[in-house]
Amino acid sequence: MYDLVIIGAGPAGLAAAIYAGRFKLSTLVFEKLSPGGQILLSPLIENYPGFPEGVSTFDLIDKFKKQVEDLGVAIENKEVLEIIPEGNSYLVKTSEGDFKAKCVIVSSGAKSKRIGVVGEEKLIGKGVSYCGTCDGPLFKNKDIVVIGGGDRAVEDAIFLVNYAKSISLVHRRSEFRASEILVEKVRKNNKIKLVLNSVVTEIIGDSKVEGIKIQNVLSKKTSEISCQGVFIFVGIIPNTEFVKNILEIDEFGFIITRPEMATSRRGIFACGDCIRKSLYQVVSACSDGATAADSAHKYLLKQ
Questions:
Q1: For residues 37 and 57, is the Cβ–Cβ distance under 8 A?
Q2: What is the pLDDT of residues 209-259, one digit of tens each?
Q3: How far apart are CA 2 and CA 162, in angstroms?
Q4: Which of 19, 37, 185, 278 is deepest in the core (most CB within 10 A)?
Q5: CA-CA distances (angstroms) from residue 176 to 90, 146, 196, 198?
């Protein structure tokens, strides 16, 4: 039996693993894909303390991972399917066997939200993408539409400029939610056209993306934009399906936690993009993870 099982190896889970390792807890980390989580979809982090010029996402995650491994904490490539309470411990069922732990930290992250319009699902992988760094090189000298108004949308629009012939940045409001320094970069780039107060109503194309239909939310006028690629960044959906029957979650699926990262069930803590909070950034995920590990350590001391 392990002292602690951590589910997910994004920044929150890796930070939790670092602190758990330093607390000398017998710890096992499960990650169904690869360490790093959603942040690997962004090539550069410009707001992480200590890196005034920015830092490569892959380099930062590699350093996190090495720090975890140097502390003797193992990261295993397994998907967690269910957590079952067993007295004062938990049975963690995975795609490759069952494991027991005295306590659990859920840091399962989130995935990109769909906009739910005609043509979206059909054209995923045929011009519709949710990852600029993954698919940007496929759209060299093409006309691209980026949908969204947060940091992720604006960051990827700036990144995609390196490949695209032109970019139309479509946002449903007149003001962006992204940080002002990013918005300034977008406004100064003449390859990026801002299409504000507008929503996408359809993605056009049979075997590949040919354009989009948009509607102005103020005038209700409709129009079309010709493009070969559509990149969508309109929020996240937490990966919490496997805990919805044992933990309290909100109407959007985010786990509800107290300030110490405790969930509604004793001995289970949660952190990172899967919890309800106000700021979804690497720096806050690391803080969440450290707090969750500290709380798990204190919980184990009382047992």
A1: no
A2: 999 999 999 999 999 999 999 999 998 999 999 999 999 999 999 999 999
A3: 47
A4: 37
A5: 43, 13, 9, 13
